[in-house]
Specification:
The chain is mainly α. It contains six helices and no strands.
C-alpha cells in the first residue's frame, strides 16, 4: 500500500506541474520555483507533514519535498542552536541532495559535451 500511495501522490504532483506548463503556459522555471515555495509554505504551516506520512517518497522526492526539507531543517536546527539555525538548518538538511545534483550535472557535462 505504501508504494501505491507514493506512486499516486508523486504522480499527482507531477501531473499538476505538467498541467501548469501545458495548460497555463507557465515557463518550467516558474513552476519549479512555485513548487519549492509551495512545499516550504505548506511545510512551515504543518500541512505537508500528513502528506509525507501518507505517501513517503511520493511527497518528499518532487520539488515540493525540497521546500519541505528546507523548512524542516531550519525548524530543527533553530530549536537545537537558536537563531543561527535559521541560516544553517536548510543548508544542512538539503546538502546531500544538492551535492548529488551538482556531481551528476558535472559528470553529465564531462561525458556529454555540448554541440555547436
Amino acid at each position: 500500500m505504501t508504494y501505491l500511495m507514493a506512486f499516486l501522490v508523486g504522480g499527482l504532483l507531477c501531473v499538476l506541474a505538467q498541467a501548469a506548463v501545458d495548460v497555463l503556459k507557465w515557463p518550467p522555471a516558474y513552476v519549479m520555483v512555485l513548487f519549492v515555495v509551495l512545499g516550504a509554505v505548506l511545510g512551515g504551516l504543518g500541512l505537508y507533514e500528513p502528506l509525507v506520512r501518507l505517501a513517503g517518497a511520493g511527497a518528499t522526492v518532487p520539488l515540493t519535498g525540497f521546500g519541505y526539507s528546507l523548512v524542516q531543517g531550519i525548524k530543527q536546527e533553530a530549536v537545537r542552536t537558536g537563531w543561527v539555525g535559521i541560516f544553517t538548518g536548510g543548508l544542512t538538511a538539503t546538502s546531500m541532495g544538492v551535492t548529488v545534483a551538482v556531481a551528476a550535472a558535472s559528470l553529465a557535462a564531462l561525458l556529454f559535451p555540448p554541440r555547436d
